[in-house]
Amino acid sequence: MQHRVGSDLAGLSDVSTDNAVGGRAEFWRGSMRAWDLAFWILVAISAAFAVPTAESAGAALASLAGFVVLVVAYQLLGRRGARLADARLTQSYLGVLVLVTTYETAAVQMGIVLLFIAYSHIWFFALSRWQGLAWTVALTLGIIGATALQVEATPADLPQIVGQATVGLLFSIALGLWITHVSEQSEVRAELLEDLRATQAALAASHHAEGVHAERARLAQEIHDTLAQGFTSVVMLAQTSSAELDAGRAEQARERLAQIEAVARDNLAEARALVAAFSPPALDDGLAAALRRLGDQLHTQTGLEVTVDAHDVEVPQDVAVALLRAAQESLANVRRHADARHVRLALHHASAGTPGASTDAGGDAPASVELEVVDDGRGVREDDVEGTGLRGMRERARVVGGDFRIDGTPGAGTRVTMRLPVPHQDARTETHA
Fold this sequence. Notes:
This protein is an alpha+beta fold and 433 residues long. Among the domains are: 17-152, no CATH class; 284-433, Heat Shock Protein 90 (2-Layer Sandwich), CATH 3.30.565.10. It has helices at 17-50, 57-84, 87-107, 115-125, 129-150, 158-246, 250-276, 287-302, 317-338, 388-399, and strands spanning 305-311, 342-350, 368-375, 403-408, 414-420, 427-432. It has a six-stranded mixed beta sheet. Helix 3 (87-107) runs antiparallel to helix 4 and helix 5 packs antiparallel against helix 6 (158-246). The radius of gyration is 44 Å and the shape is rod-shaped.
């Protein structure tokens, strides 16, 4: 039961009135019917005991009037103040409650039964522990005086009356503080739960943003490794075709135009695959076949001698895509930058402990498969190893738990290696010269 909201959890300190009553307003919205029912039942029981025991009709009417005042005060001050988070209304109600309870105790013998309502409402409507204690003491002092008047006590009777009232006071304080502590713990748990929900919502938003960023980066890398490379080929082939037309070599120019059309069709298929979120169409016939087609295209478009040494392996889709994109990017770099005469493209099984080593097809399943692209061109400089394409290949290898490296020195060619964990099967080798 939430008797007080927003009080200091560590001691008997006062708290913000707005916070306390505002929290109680939330409580009332959730438990108003239960509190109303409890109030009406207690009022009915108290009136049933108190009014009939009045010594005269006038006293009975006076007692009944007191109950009416209490009901009106509860409706207009206590109940309304709690729902509207108005501290002035709730504290005014407590004042009326203490006065009516004191009056009923003095007027009729059984008026003291109102204490069941009074003590519970004090600890609910009080804004702090100190305020609850103050109202409880004030009520107890009023009850002592009212009881003394009602029974026409003598000085000898006062110790007994004070003792009984003190026992009730201590019991009320102990019960009120205990219930308040339980209520505060419930409030703390509710706040922690709300904080947890807020944190979960923030994490969900953060993860969503990270997912969006990662997806954008993935699409950017896919476009760089597919469409951008194809467009580069189209530009180079178009320039070559234009030069051949200027030189009067119409037949060679027509061949270049046919190559441009083939590259454009491949790009169109890649674009459709990206939109549909399918696997690259080049992998429809397997990774080894895709690598051989890359070798054919490079040889046809540039005249380079291309050797393809590819094992026909069954690999997971993400591994196959990573290897294919690495091969495409590496061959595009050879075309643009290497000034090479020969390129070797190899896909082979690598043993678990020896980089670059391979195993026979009939042996035990190796730890990984390795893609190598080796050219005899001008090599790489230190500032060449941080380009967008190379960073993309490193990231692809990292995502599937593999390794990527590039080795080479100026004038001595370049070796690009990507090693990823997969099983292996048989091998085939082709050379284009």
